[in-house]
Protein: OmpW family protein
Organism: Flagellimonas allohymeniacidonis
Amino acid sequence: MKKLKITLLGALLCFTGIINAQDTSNDDFSKWQFRLRGIVVTPDESADIEAIGGDASISTAFVPELDISYFFDENWSVELILATAKHDVEAVGTAVGDIDLGEVWLLPPTLTGQYHFTGGDLVPYLGAGVNFTIFYGVDEGPVVDDIDYDSALGFALQGGFDYMLNDKWFLNVDVKKLFLGTDATVDATTALSATVDADVDINPWIFGFGVGVKL
């Protein structure tokens, strides 16, 4: 856990240092950009569940997302993506049947570097970066006694485009793939007289549509 936090902090400090080192004398492009999207978070989940076998089923969520971008020049930028989503979780096909594992909130702040293909009102971009997912607000459901999810460092790929309405406002379509997982410990002492460990891959697709502004 400590190493993961140090890695993420190092990435943030690196990007902050790059921003501070930029020549601010060139003002012929907007350095800051903000977007507000509605996103659909669709997990592409799988799990390795000890002792009882089976797989994981994680629900799709629809939530708002805010992102903040800083442009080094007209093409290169970094983007910080902020959103949180609640998912229903179930263990399916286990040796004791399907098990309702309640709900959990995911907070995966994601930092990506992007390249924007300029030259017209339609501005496609590609990006890649890192995310650090925090699990909170766990409701373990009616069957098990407790569930603990480990926070995890993951990676992200991104693609999309902005469509400029004028020099300031634009529409945005965005697709991201997050590669993230967690080690979960399920305390099922009451129901199964056991504690069960699971290695869960969440790996969500995130589809977004929204509006943005350049400053």
About this structure: Residues 2-16+38-214 form a domain with the Porin fold (CATH 2.40.160.20).
